[in-house]
Structure formats: structure tokens, C-alpha cells
Amino acid sequence: MKLNFGGVVPLSTIDWPGKASMSVFFGGCNLNCKYCQNHNIIDKENFIDISELSERIEESSDFIDAILITGGEPFLQKEALTLLAKKAKSLGLEVGIQTNGCFPDRLLELIELCCCDFVSLDIKAPFSDSKKYSDVAGVEVDVDKIKKSLNILKKFTSSNSKLKENKENKRDMGKKTKKDINKNIEDKLNLNKKTNSLNKELQSEVTTTLFPGKIGMKDVESITSNLEGLNYVLQQGKTENARKKEYRNIDEFDAEEMREIGKNVGYENISIRTKEGGKEKL
Hints:
Strands 3-1-2-4-5-6-7-8-9-10 form a 10-stranded mixed beta sheet. Helix content is 40%, strand content 21%. It has helices at residues 39-42, 50-60, 78-90, 104-112, 130-137, 143-156, 158-173, 178-194, 217-224, 245-248, 255-264; strands spanning 2-12, 21-26, 47-49, 66-70, 94-99, 118-122, 203-210, 232-236, 270-274, 278-281. The protein is of the alpha/beta class. The chain has 2 domains: 2-157 and 202-281, Aldolase class I (TIM Barrel, Alpha-Beta Barrel), CATH 3.20.20.70; 170-194.
């Protein structure tokens, strides 16, 4: 099988915090984001046999914990993505995916195959402003598909599921009899048996890239209203190598401005990611 290949970073401790990972870049993307930093690998084709990359991952497996597959948009090449993910899992490696969320059904399938440990979902603008979303993405975007991807993360992310479960338990505890509680425990045990093949330890984050005058505080406030406790990372937009001139000609938020936005938005699970300091929990 051939893969449109964008490149590889053999070892990184930054791309997936807490992991020594190999970052694999898939070529091609269904979007045309104006601020894209990887347009050099998106705008051209470089096909290799997937076995070459599989061998490289195997050779590195003693020195890394995980592979992080990014792009481009990995889910454009569903078969190649699935093969690589299965290969990595067979070697005892964790698998992370960075995606724009436009292929929710493919995302769900990979999770249900137990071939995905971490998902980073990039939400570019508020769902309530589809015109702005499409403007940033450079093409018309069906935001309902990205909402569906977000809902998949809400369902499968372990910490988020536990948070919702605890809230529901506290709300309902006063209404339940002992018999109800025992029945609830039994139902959960049965559910766990049925879903025991699913990856219940999925980690996830949602990211948004910020630019002065383009994507800022009001957009972040709107996006957080949909997240329901998922980890949220505000990324410092880079302008120097942006695809479109209109983004190359604006200033960047500095680290302190990023912190101010993150702290003022009033969302608990929020971090920033900057050139100077990497990822920083607020």
C-alpha cells in the first residue's frame, strides 16, 4: 500500500507531552487553512510504500513510547492510518492522532478498533459562526461533522466520562433506594463486560490557534461552552510561515497575552502552548 508521506520527526518529547514519541506527518489535507504551517507537505505529493515506514517504526520501538500521526489530515488516508496504528500497537506503542475532526465516522472506527490512545481535535472557530469557521479553514466546512467528532471524544475520554458520571451520581443519589443503587451497579458491570474490547483509557485534548484580530477571547468563550470538561489547549499562532499573506502580516499574541486570555475565559481544564514555554497548565 502507498502512503502520501509528509515526513517524520524520529524522536520528540514536545509533540506529545510526557511521551517519547515519533511524529509521523501524512501529506494532503481537505482544508486550506490560511495560517497553516505545514502547507509545504500538504501541497505536494510524495508517495512511499507503507512498509518502509512500518520498518522504521519497528526499528525505533525500543527508544520511543508512542507514535503521533499528524499532517495534513491523517483520516484522509484511512487504510494507511489503520495499518500503521495496528503496527504500532502490536509493538507495544501508544498511538496518538491529530485531526481537524471532519471525519467523525473514521475517528470512531479507529477508537473502537482499540488503535488509538490519544486524540487532539483542532477546533478552529466557534460552531455558532460557520462563516468564520470556513473563512479560517479556507474552504466550506460542515461544522456538524466536527461537532460529531467532539461528541465522540466526550463519550470515550476516560476523565470526562468519570466527571459526568460523578455529577450524575451526586444529582441522583438522594432519589435512589438501596435497590436502585444495587441495580445501577449491576447494570454498569454488565456494560463493562460488553464494552471490554473498547479502549476506555482514551486521552484527548481540543486545540484552538489564536491570532490577534482573527481568533481571540470571544471565540474561545464560545468554544469552551461546548467542551464539557475536556482538556483545552490555546495555541500561540505563528505568522512567519503562514500560508496566506493576511496572516503573515499580523502580530502574534505573546505568552503573557495567551495566559491572560486563558485565565479570563473561566474554563477549568485549560492550558496554553507557546514557542517560548511549550505547554503550560493555567
